[in-house]
Amino acid sequence: MNKFKQDLIAWGLLVSGLGTILLLMGSTFYVVIMQSFGLYSMFGDAPSFTLAHWQAVLTDSVFQKAFWYSVKVSVLGAVLSIVVAYPIAMWLRKPIPGKIAIITTLRAPMLVPGLVAAFLFVNMISYHGILNETLVYFGLWDQPRTLQNDEFGWGVVILQMWKNIPFALILIGGEVNSLKSDLLDAAANLGSSAWQRFRYVIFPLTLGAVQVSFILIFIGALGDFAFYSIAGPRETYSLARLMQMTAYQFEEWNQSAVMALMIMLTSAFFTILVSVIIRPLSHKKGEIK
User: Fold this and answer.
1) 192, pLDDT greater than 90
2) Which of 59, 166, 221, 262 is the most buried (most CB within 10 A)?
3) What is the 3-state secondary structure (H, E, C) of the chain?
């Protein structure tokens, strides 16, 4: 009986918190979905089911350009953040002098708000910024050049990396540090080289952290507003920026809801895609040569 009461209390506490979260999230999702199909109106218009808002958004060249731009920059930002964080995590696994100070320095960007980071970056690469002035001073450039708001979006990619490398380092570093030395020693005793130990032992066992890092960084980058608005190109909008303009400047809330759903559907698609790609890599079969 006591066990039953304890379970009942535990479920009651869980439902009270989880129920609130599901209610808030569920109501938000409901409004966005209904709004995208014309079944919910912000301004009192008669609701009616229609696919016109989806057709208007998906066939709009501005939306298509914003969509592929946001996906491109988000994928690059996530992949490059992991590529940089992974070897750093491997290096920090070893006992090195000043390890705590190094880790603290690497995590410092997490304390800087994204909007502040974007302004600092733009000031650094501006026409008379630190980078331009330094290159001109050392004679590498004859005169300052325009580096900010590049069309490809490298400025946004760099900002995404700067902000997300510490986050990826925490996830991947935790997975790398959890590997037991006995496992690697056993592989070495069986004649495996350092590369084979990394390829067949370390890499497969840390792919879970790589997967989580990519998914979380990609989702955050896809819906980011500050970096795109300040450091992004002037002639191409991000999905978040276009969604904000559509809702508040053009007052097309139904089309804005479609864009919100496209961001969520794209995030879900890449989550599944990365899981499908990484799952076979995390299970090595056959003999090691």
Assistant:
1) no
2) 221
3) CHHHHHHHHHHHHHHHHHHHHHHHHHHHHHHHHHHHCCCCCCCCCCCCCCCHHHHHHHCCHHHHHHHHHHHHHHHHHHHHHHHHHHHHHHHHCCCCCCHHHHHHHHCHHHHCCHHHHHHHHHHHHCCCCHHHHHHHHCCCCCCCCCCCCCCCCHHHHHHHHHHHHHHHHHHHHHHHHHCCHHHHHHHHHCCCCHHHHHHHHHHHHHHHHHHHHHHHHHHHHHCCCHHHHHHCCCCCCCHHHHHHHHHHCCCCHHHHHHHHHHHHHHHHHHHHHHHHHHHHHCCCCCCCC
